[in-house]
Amino acid sequence: MSAQEIVLLLAPSQDSKSATGPAFIERHRKYAQELHGANPKNPILVIGCKSSVKPGSVIVEEANFKVFSLGSKGGNFLKVAQIASSTVKSKSWKINRYVCGNPWESFFPALLMKYIFGMRAKMQIQYHGCFYERAWLKISFKNRLMYLLTKFSILFGDSFRFVTLEQMQEMIKRNPKLSNKSFAVPLPTPIPISTSPITSAENVIGYLGRIHPERNPELWLESVRNLNLKRQDFKCLIAGSGPDEQKFIAKLIDLLGPNRVAFKGHISANQLEDFWNEITILLSTSDIESYGLAIREAILRGKKCVAVTSVGARDAKENFSEGISLAKLDPVQIAKSIADEIESTKSTLNVESVRNKQEIMNASYVSELVSTWR
């Protein structure tokens, strides 16, 4: 009997039991269904991810989709490669293609498997960030190192996936080798089952995501400060955590007072809908969003959204022009955009139409991406 051909994705930092684990598994289950289809000769999708169970143990066992444990320490690239290689051999799988979800922790173990452990196969590398943005590079030495690793990974890829056309074009300008091997396929965005309409008498401005420099928390605060100079009929709800968390929350409470600030900290996928139900406006001040998932999630729920212009925000504006207000990196302009949204009591956004469009795009994204794996 011939070995089962597989497409292998290593995700050593993605815990199958974490807040994002179920969504990650479900998204890749759809990829697996599309990949294998009804043809038994097509490869199946196999994922290795972080888990507390014994390394090599199969966590998800389905006909066309498998997930196995890489153990709980994903930072050791050699160890990850050893576990994955041993698992592949023990299951009599034959790697048809490596899919590297990023150019470091997913890429380097696959590179070791290919060249050190002799499991030769084509390699697709996926880029989800705007690694070329000067604003991002200036944040830390680590970011500059990550950009060098990104450039290094280009030497070994057979194909390269980006999440927006603009992101791909900017990377090709800087790395001509990408030109004939690249394509842009966005991430499918989960569509909510129901919507909590904006009927609250209160205006609640939401912050969602990690609280760290890449999201411009200081600009977020300064924008709220400028808004507060003009009006005080709003509150803020913060959902997220990160290195700047305590300083950010302390400054916001000093600015608005404890009665106008609510802090949820890190929230799970199950708690996310509560956040969306409680806010009326999402404010995103990151200017280095390559995709802007939170922006799209807000639009799909009929929430008003003010975002600093970025690759992801511009792409969202192109697809859903009435769902988002774009602003420059100017706290005064951002505050004015928020005030305009507050004054606009009626939303022109047709939520049903937006969701139907996103559903069609999701199906297209899955098909387009998976076609590059066969």
CATH fold call of the largest domain: Rossmann fold
- Counting DSSP H or I runs of 4 or more residues, the number of helices is 13
Q: What best-fitting shape do the alpha-carbon axes yield?
A: elongated
CATH class of the largest domain: Alpha Beta
Distance between the termini: 21 Å
What would you say this structure looks like, in words?
With 374 residues, this protein is an alpha/beta fold. Helices cover 41% and strands 21% of the residues. The protein folds into 2 domains: 198 residues, Glycogen Phosphorylase B (Rossmann fold, 3-Layer(aba) Sandwich); 153 residues, Glycogen Phosphorylase B (Rossmann fold), CATH 3.40.50.2000. Helix 10 links the parallel strand 12 and strand 13. Helix 1 packs across helix 13 and helix 2 packs across helix 3. It is elongated and about 70 Å long. The model has no long low-confidence stretch (mean pLDDT 92).
